[in-house]
Amino acid sequence: MAAAQQPAFLRTIFHVDMDAFFVSVEELYDPSLKGKAVVVGGQRDERGVVSAASYEARKFGVHSAMPLRTAAKQCPHAIFVDGHPERYRECSEKVYKVLGSFTPQVEMASIDEAYLDMTGTERLHGPPLRAAHNLHQRMKAETGLNCSVGIGSSRLIAKVSSGQAKPNGVLWILPGEEAKFLSPLDVREIPGVGKVMESHLHALGIKKVGDLAKLEEGELEERFGKWGLALAGKARGEDAGGWFDSEVAAEHDAKSISHEHTYNEDTADQPQLESTLMRLSEMVGRRLRESNFHARTVQLKLRYKDFTTITRAHTLPNPTQLDTEIFEHIRALFRKNWKKGIQVRLLGVHASSFTTQSSQIDLLEGGRQQRWKDALTAADKLRDKFGESSVGLASGLRGSFRERTHENPAGLPGKGKAK
DNA sequence: TCTGGGGTCCTAGGACCC
DNA sequence: TCTGGGGTCCTAGGACCC
Q1: CA–C1' nearest nucleotide, residue A200
Q2: How many structural domains compose chain A?
Q3: A232, A329: one domain
């Protein structure tokens, strides 16, 4: 019973969503962008998609995930800006600090949105609307950024209402009014309903959340499985199952780490492709070491010119966090699965099935691995100090890496011959 | 339209074990 | 003799989110 999964007490959840976050951060660095059509994510002629668009640009139909070239056609006068992830992370931390001063129960759901469990904070902050308006003001004063706040009795209601409050607004859905609030909205507004689910529902004549709520739970389950059942609960405003059901600010460990690269121009040049895999393996290995994870499974992702995409995984007998080991397996997967001569658009390296320690390695192996780990940790530190380009096991693109790749196929550090 | 990069979760089939 | 089934691990692919 979905209803039985609801907590016995009434919760007050805030969902705080920053308005056009990337664009707003760029405006802090360059105020002349204010009020203009701005597209963040790359230049107008580049391969890539829109990360964020200003409200002015949205008037011309530009939205995130749209190809940059399409955006340029729809809104020729837009200003195109490269993204600056460090800036966004920095601002996100400021946002987190402001939220944390209202309650310790803060969970960043992504770089620009958070859930707050404000249950029982009335004596400190007053009723929800007052708390939300204070928060809203403080956010502007301390970060220079606008946000919208949705308030509800579940994460779902809070999330959907912050969406309805945009831009720069606050919306509180009173307990008991959940179904009434959702009913006139498009099914697409429900988190988890994407393009595919939407068209399935449309095919059944279901356009609004209200149509969904009228349907038998059993029918939804029969048609869409576990998902359909959750959907029935969502139509009533319940956090039906999965992540939505978890407590706000519960700890979640990362489940996977990955890096991928799309070429500006497709290529079938093996040394170039393998050098990219080396670089991606290094990036993944580095992140594993930073979080002290060892991965049991490594996965190659390969996208051809025609966009057909395959993934090939390999599970290791001993978990690893070493660049060279990751690369060794990734390269083997690549050589086994790449159709030689066919142009490649994207490569990716993915690590998962984490353990906190590398399990059971014999002493000799262990000693060798420890020396590797020391060498790599030293390299990580150098990179922190002098930048990404200062240390390369076999990194870089084109020309310069080619010789290195040939003479040092395993990308081994230090002097002497590989092998 | 010509389609990024980083994630999470789900499904489904096959292997293997009991 | 004929016919089981559950559980877990692994892999591949896909929907979805920001």
Answers
A1: C15
A2: 3
A3: no
Residue A168 phi/psi, 5-degree rounding, is 60, 40
pLDDT digits over A20-79, tens only?
Answer: 999 999 999 999 999 999 999 999 999 999 999 999 999 999 999 999 999 999 999 999
The backbone region for A380, taken as left when phi is positive above 0, alpha when psi lies in -120 to 50, beta otherwise, is alpha
- CATH of residue A273: 3.30.1490.100
Distance A415 CA to B2 C1' (A): 45
In the predicted model, is pLDDT for residue A362 greater than 70? Answer: no
Residues A196-202 have a mean pLDDT of 95
Range of the domain at A218: 180-245
Is residue A90 one of the residues assigned to a domain?
A: no
Judge if A295 and A367 occupy the same domain: yes
Residue (of A55, A113, A44, A112) closest to A81 by Cα position: A44
CA dist A401 and A411 (Å) reads 10
Q: Are residues A316 and A388 in the same domain?
A: yes
Nearest nucleotide by C1' position to the A17 CA atom = C18
